[in-house]
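Example with several molecule types.
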Amino acid sequence: MAVTATDGFIVRKRSTTITTLLPPLSVVPNATCAGCGCVCDDIELQHDGRSIYVAKNACERGEAWFREQTVERQSSEVLLDAAVEAAAEILHAADLPLVFGLGDSTCEAQREAIALAEQLGGTIDTETSLSHGSMEMAAQLGGKITCTLGEVKNRADFVLYWGANPAETHPRHFERYTLTTTGKYTPSGRADRTLVVVDVRETASTAEADVFLRIRPGQDFEALSILRAVVQGSRFDEAKLAATGLTLDQLRDLSRRMKKARYGIVFVGMGLFQTRGTFMNCAAVTALVIELNSWTRFISMPMRSPGNVSGADAVLSYTTGYPFAVNFSRGYPRYNPGEFSAAGLLARGEVDAALIVGTDAAARLPQAARDHLSRIPTITLDAKPPTFTPRVHITTAAVAAGTVYRMDKVPLTLRPPITSAAPSDETVLRLIRDALAKKSAWYPTAAAVMPAK
Amino acid sequence: MLRIQGGTVYDPANGVNGVVKNIVLDGGKVVTSGEGGRTIDATGMIVFPGGVDVHTHVAGAGLNFARSMIPEEHRQSSPILRSRTKRAGIGGPTPTSFATGYLYAGMGWTTVNEAAVPMLTAKRTHDELHDTPIVDKACCVLMGNNELILDLLERGEHERAKQVVAWYLWAAKGYGIKVVNAGGVAAWKWGKDAKKLTDVVEGYHSLTPGAIIASLARIIDELNLPHPMHLHCNNLGAPGNVGTTLETMKTLESHRAHLAHLQYHAYGGDDWESIRSDAPAIANYFNAHKNLTTDAGAVLFGNAITLSADGPWQYLLYQLTGKKWGNIDVENETGCGVVPYVYREKNIVNAVQWATGLELLLLIDDPWRVALTTDHPNGTSFWRYPEILQLLMDASFRKEEFAKLPEKARSRTCLADLTREYTLYEIAILTSAGPARTLGLSQKGHLGVGADADVAIYNAHKNAATMFSHPRYVIKGGEIVVEDGDIRTTPESRGFITKPSFDPAIEDYLRPLFQSQYTVAFENYPVEMARIPRPIVREV
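Resulting structure tokens for the full complex:
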């Protein structure tokens, strides 16, 4: 049978010769996908209890994400016990252990990881510090003006992506939330909206744009600040404008479109998180958006990914007060990006043991940080084999039941139809905590952590 | 089994006013008698039912949004060190989730009502409340700007609106219904507000805030919910808003309603220069209308975080302060704004606010109908309640504090003329028996047989702030959770949920609207029961 786009992706082919002998597939409507920050919850799955065969409505990323979900080979419980004990031993012996990753874990697993880091007096950090953490820091400087994605769907007539390529990183963003979707006050969908993309090169997303502004690399802060000046009608340095690669006419046109909008949104992508300025780039977005609220309603939002990195921000914030880069070595949460971010701690060689949850997280670290991971005892938890050789690797379920947060921090429930034979991150983290609890415990004393002034 | 022997008991719900009597607790309840177990010698001590907070913000998307924005506040706040019984955390203006449980229990409070839950993100509110130990919780869910409901009200479809309200309440696993700046938050999504009850709400043809308030109050009464409409009136914080507040109270004459943080709604004057307290006008009307309850929303000087679903007000406050501004618009339902704020004694407006909260607490004659709150974290943090109790119980201390205000502010309030001093019996009503009754929680706020075994035991002390800051023992569900100023155990708390009856056919009406207006599937929207530990479901 030919597969059309509306059938969704065939995640896995069934043996065609014996199809008639196979039991019919079970159908799961409205399944949730955490393949990226979109966290679509309209996927229709067909499965046989061991593997997923069809994921209707899913994109390529979603297809890959569902394909990973199978009943894995049963691992030996003896081996799991030994691995958990070895992990606990390494972490217990360490002076400054690091727990890192968690972007693909459920909130329930993240909760366990925080409890573990606290129990160890260690540091916990997530993929946030490598990406939209810049946006969190900007919020700490000046605030954050945001919304849930349904406001974009229902209301936004002006959509700007800056340094983002959603067509590839968040494939259903346009279709479900921002562009072609129709909403309460956007009955004509695409026709009701203006799409502007600012990027350093042409991408699959710029091809969709009404206006594509090509900016020179590393000029985001300057361009955003000059745009704000144009919106305000205040002065700016024309030489600085020329350096951005944009013209005054382009910025005037953009400013006009923004002011004219009924409800506008700026989505902020990796381009701003990874270039010179990081959190100041994001602060420039916030300042622009605040300025635009004197004219009309304007909003901004970072393009969070992987699937549940937003959940990690939320669970860390309610437990510790801080969204990422949290250290417990004084027995209470302290925060300092850079000082307590995984990349910095590892690159400076300060960490003497690491627990990486989701090995993609390790792959995203800079080279100097990855080098240190191979020098110290490292434990990895992942469904996939690690890309380097850790001291202990525990295979966990690719996807487990629990809570994930969409990129706009709307919580959704994951109910995978396939129960993996491998334990979940949550379970393994709890087992490590239980194993640690049997060893000598560390408790801070007020005198030790807060010396008298 | 736990016996509290020889304490001086204040149990207003049962008319017990400072009587030396024994209280016996067993199976998490107050019982008539029992043998064995531990005995607490409470001779000379004051025994209260555990405190109940009728209006606080301790969990959820908005509060957490605030938490993540203010590291500079956390760094100067009291740390909570990890110990054998406590998780690590931070105190300060917005304590972390575990710390919130310890700090409430640490002053004798054992039940809290989270007063503003966006339903779309209610799952996360319940998850955070799960990690807020010891205290039992209820939630009020936000409906006063829900466009699905507003659209029905504009079309005059009362019966269907009632079904939708009931469906939502159960879907979100809420306990009561909150209305914030009716129509104003929906208008804010177009950059507007709704300050007057008679103005048509932006985006609608005939719907007014007054009509939204009256309709929802009627629906809540018809659904027979245990807690009345929990209302944050329109025009919060503005000089001269007393007119809007009085008009709102008149709109509510034939219904029950709880007016939240009344202090923020009791100002006279024309602008920020001439702002004054109009608490007497509010209190006079309120005293004569028994259908209403309220909480103070009192203010203390110092750093605070203002946090409200009232998006347009928070934007104005940002413009006034020039500090950080946080805003979240929540699709179809509500919004949220966050602005850090400092209440300064020498600032005329802040001084007037400080006096207005106290005036209301002293001028409202029936303590059963007014509860102690600071609209945490807006007026100040909840852990400063004991300071307010001292101001209420000690008129000479109050006079000293009043004298510190600027002359200009002192002339804008009648606080100097008020000599009333709250008695311990009245304080037990204000902090426990009254709010429990307002919430409709019959097992809370008293020590009669069958009540939940939640008890606060204080060493008698002439300074109320000292006394209420440091209970000698706090008992929750029959377990000693605080003893000698330390957390001894952190029992899992309970969640109160209301299940109103509704016609299941309403789902056929809602499903296509979810498809066209929401970004989550209808089937995925409701909060699963498993998220609420040890739920207590009230079917109505």
